[in-house]
Amino acid sequence: MKTTMQLSSRDVKNERIVYQIFLLVIAFIFIIASYIFVVPYTFVSETEFNVEPAKFFGALMFLAIGIYAYVMHQRHQMTFETKIFIIILLSFAIHLTYILYTPGDVRQHDTWSTNHDSHYDYALSFYLTGTFPDHNITIDTIYQFYHPPLNAIFQAGFMHFFEFFCPIESLTSSPENLYSACQILSCFYMLISSVFMVKIVLMSKLSHSSKLMASAFVALFPRLIQLSGQLNNDSLALALSILALYFFCRWYFVKKSYINIIMTALFIGLAMMSKMSAVVICFGIAIAFIIELVKSIQKKTNSLPLKHLIFQYVIFLLICAPLGLWFQFYTHYVYGLPWNFVFSRLNAALFTGTKDWVLANKPDSIDYYNSKNAGAIYENNAYNIFKRFIVPIDFSELFNSTYIFCSSWQDYCILSYALRSSIFGEFSYSAGGGIAAIAVLAIFLLWFLFIAYLIYQLIKRPKFGRDGTFSLYLTLGCILMYVYFQISMPYGCSMDFRYIVPIILPIGYLLGKANDMCSTGTINIFKRIYKPLLNATVFIFLASSFLFYFVTV
After folding, report:
1. In degrees rounded to 5, what are phi and psi of residue 424?
2. Dihedral sign, Cα of residue 451, residue 455, residue 458, residue 464
3. Whole-angstrom distance, CA of residue 145 vs CA of residue 125
4. How far apart are CA 408 and CA 495, in angstroms?
5. N or C: which end of the chain has fewer CB within 10 A?
6. Distance between CA atoms of 328 and 340, rounded to whole angstroms?
């Protein structure tokens, strides 16, 4: 009887996996069909784009979700699982709406270049020849070709597929149009990211209400909306990083099986094969690995025997390291690039560092930097550090010429920039300013509430748990990586939140943890004020940013 029950449980689990894969396939087909059906109606000319058909299609999706929610409520079937499903549907619908009203040349990063050395040209080389680019690959000429190739390879393959499959000539009439259709891939990557972040949240020991809050936070986070339409390698790197974290959490919290450690290594390696900054998740994972090693040495309960654990670590490195690092060897020995090369020939007007940094790192360029940079932030080291790293809010930046949006040419405060770019990226928008202001106020308040929770946790020391401490390590690793990036490459574009997007997962979880903390133990005045304020702020932030991306253009 026991064996039968085990087999039955395994069969149910396998059926659920097959069902979830089936739903993802259906979603991918729906994205393709929607793109083919809607986008041709949005073209007015090569320079004009009509967003109304896309917005109308999006409104129909939201109406369908609303009807579904109403019916489930009326039938008294609005279960916890149904609410989670609705959150994912809302996430999917806003991501899809965004790519339908946003052309492939709008709000992109390093995607198009007149020198034919951008992400588009990277994918185009694989599309046309099946090989790496053979131009602009020296240390003095390279632009985006130093990135690992996985994203470009996937896009080139999809361009061939879409060209063969799509019946609409206007969508396949040029390589540029075929490349723009790769927004379908980016949208699907964000669906994967949203679904698996929610699955990680559901794996935790949070209460149902806190799981709903954390799931909504990660699935509806506004920067994912923008990433769903961006064509560079950020979207793929994020999706693979989240898959890596999912399997790592299964290994760390559920079962230290070989399949979980292998899948973790595989997806970390593939994420780094998409973009090296995916390494941002490795700091928290490395700390967890060290903790498990210490527990194994001490022979703690539920720890693996030392030899088995070390064998798993060896397998992890044998899979992860070659996948993640082979392209570093390729670019060093084939292109002649230095180890860990990053394109740094950036416009000096983007510079946020000091004259001393230029003298130490780019002495030949000091005259050029002097002509482009002036003022205390450039001349004075102490003021530069204060302005960039210490000040939480610089009101002069909030009310500059870009209003509340980010400007990599004018902003210096990294916290303010990170929080605002987590909503808008480094772009300005022509509509939705009032809603955007509400979203900015909410994200600042949410950050201070997050810090307040961490301080309370430090002082009162309520139970934090293994999942809480791992989330803290993951958050800390992302922040350290971000700060290091500001020091090693002090430019406005380096401050963009896109380099640390995985941080939304541990922060979303910790906000759920804070919500649960307010319902346990002694209910003091801090908890009575904090809980409703936290819930209201999360709701206002998500609702305002969601609405912003529906009304904007």
Report:
1. -110, -5
2. negative
3. 11
4. 8
5. N
6. 7
What is the rounded CA–CA span in Å between residue 545 and residue 419?
Answer: 13
Residues in Cβ contact with 304 at an 8 Å cutoff, skipping those fewer than 6 apart: 256, 292, 296, 312
Residue 83 and residue 54: Cα distance in Å, rounded? 26
Contact 329, 276 (CB under 8 A): no
pLDDT of residue 5: 45
Q: In sequence order, what are the beta bridge partners of 400?
A: 403
In angstroms, rounded to a whole number, what is the distance separating the alpha carbons of residues 421 and 428?
10
User: For residue 10, what pLDDT band results from cuts at 50, 70 and 90?
Assistant: low
- Going by C-beta distance under 8 Å and a sequence separation of 6 or more, which residues neighbour residue 165? 32
User: Measuring CA to CA, how many Å separate 353 from each of 89, 370, 401, 442?
Assistant: 43, 12, 22, 29
Q: Is the dihedral of CA 452, 455, 461, 465 positive or negative?
A: positive
What's the pTM value of the predicted model, to 2 decimals? 0.95
Q: How far apart are CA 187 and CA 146, in angstroms?
A: 25
Q: For residue 232, give the 3-state DSSP assignment.
A: coil
H or E element: which one contains 458? helix 433-460
Residues whose CB is less than 8 angstroms from the CB of residue 375 and which lie 6 or more positions away in sequence, other chains included = none
**Token output for 247:** 């399997």
Using DSSP, state whether 87 is helix, strand or coil: helix
Helix, strand or coil, per DSSP, at residue 1: coil
What letter represents residue 165's amino acid?
F
Predicted confidence band of residue 25 (pLDDT cuts 50, 70, 90): very high
| Residue among 429, 403, 397, 366 nearest 495 (CA) | 397
* Average pLDDT score over residue span 372-382: 90
Given a contact cutoff of 8 angstroms between Cβ atoms, the answer to whether 160 and 127 are in contact is yes
- Residue 2 has a pLDDT of 45
In the structure encoding, which two tokens stand for residue 268, read together? 């970390």
Is-contact 380 363, C-beta < 8 A?
no
Provide the pLDDT confidence category of residue 398 given band limits of 50, 70 and 90.
Answer: low
> Which two three-digit tokens encode residue 72?
């489930």
List helix spans (H) across 43-146: 52-74, 80-101, 119-129
Residue listed under structure tokens 């002069």: 396
Q: Are 143 and 150 in contact (CB under 8 A)?
A: no
Listing DSSP states for 511-546 in one string gives HHHHHHHTTSS---HHHHHHHHHHHHHHHHHHHHHH
As separate numbers, helices (DSSP H) first and strands (DSSP E) second, the chain gives 24, 0
